Amino acid sequence: MTIAAAVIPDRLRALPRPPLALVFLLAALLVVSRRPGVLLHATFWAEDGWRWYPEAYTMGWSSLFKPWTGYLQTISRLVALAAQPFPLSWAPTLFAGAAILVQAGVATFMLSDRLAELCPRWTVRAAFALLYVLLPNSFEVYANLTNVQWHLALLAFLVCVGRPPAGAVGRGFDLLVLVLSGLSGPCCVFVLPVALWRAFMRGDRADLVRFAILLLCVVVQLWCLFGGGGGRAAPPLGAGPRRLTLILSLQVILPLLIGRHSDPVYTELPWWTNGVMPAAVFALAAALTARTLVVGPAAVRFGCVFAGGIMLAALVRPAIGSSDPAWFAMSHPDVGDRYYVMPMLCWGAVLFAAAADRWVAVRYTARALLLLAAVMLPGDWHLPSGFTFGGRTDFVQRARSFADAPSGTVMSFPVNPVGVEPMVLRKR
């Protein structure tokens, strides 16, 4: 029994794969459809306005080598530098457009033949790509430049586990992705063991080269972190087993099955507040994951190493901007959801693989959960706009006023999410 037979009808499995250019266009349209405001009413998000644009504006190319939160953030700074020749009023749209292109590129790569070795049926990979685009509990990383590093890290992971490219264009693509991802935040640390494992399994020279590139990037990022780049202070954790089951159940396991629109229904139930329901949900997910790690495909084990490393790091040293102990804050909705994107995708991969398990109980449990997700996740299609970002602001009007202002004028500009400090620019 294959994964394709478990989750894809026979008629769909026989369809030819569409051209990747068409897949890319469709993926981009789907990404935009969940939150049209990111393009129609674009506004900077967090460091987009606090760091990337103003530092590119004032420092130029030297901003590229300035760490932030202890790491180089190359992809964000490159886009900010590329936006400088254009009017300021265009910049948020250019930032959002770059983020959308990366997200659509990840979904497209999932359907490429590079991943056929891990999952031969393109229809299964298409279903997983749709899950990636439709992922709930992901508004923080959705179509904004500051958090595009998470999507780029996923692409680097897929490059490392996929089949090595045959031509120079493919090798150049791999180099670009690995360098940009490796020098954009800390996620390269978690891709590195997967790259090493893959190189050890296959012994292919291309895998060794990819591992060497990532290793060099990790060295550079660790040098920035420990060489004075300025990481964030560690918050008090308030750790405990009950909080752990709450975090994983609320932020990873249940969102992938029933979406976030159902939160008010179950989080107010007595069985949730007394911890019984989170513990049961966690136990079910842990059992399916453990079974799949033992008998499932290597791709799931690769994903668990990658996503597990990110989740562990998030639990040990989260950056969530809350005065409460970190694990207490993380056990509530809409807190730190960037940390849960990879674990949710890994949980989805576990369900896809378990749906083809030879044990009947495991197989039909996974299929039932996938059916539940197929029914419930469309309820999370439209992401919030005004509350988080992409709502209407006076950014364009202020940007035009800034363009007409005399040199030396200081002006502030709105930055989302709502309530954070604005961007301040001094006219050159």
Automatic annotation (TrEMBL):
ATP-binding in keyword set: no
Signal peptide: none
Keywords, sorted A to Z: Membrane, Transmembrane, Transmembrane helix
Keyword Membrane listed: yes
TM region(s), chain numbering: 90-111, 118-135, 173-196, 208-228, 271-290, 302-320, 340-360
Name by which UniProt lists this protein: DUF2029 domain-containing protein
Organism name: Rhizosaccharibacter radicis
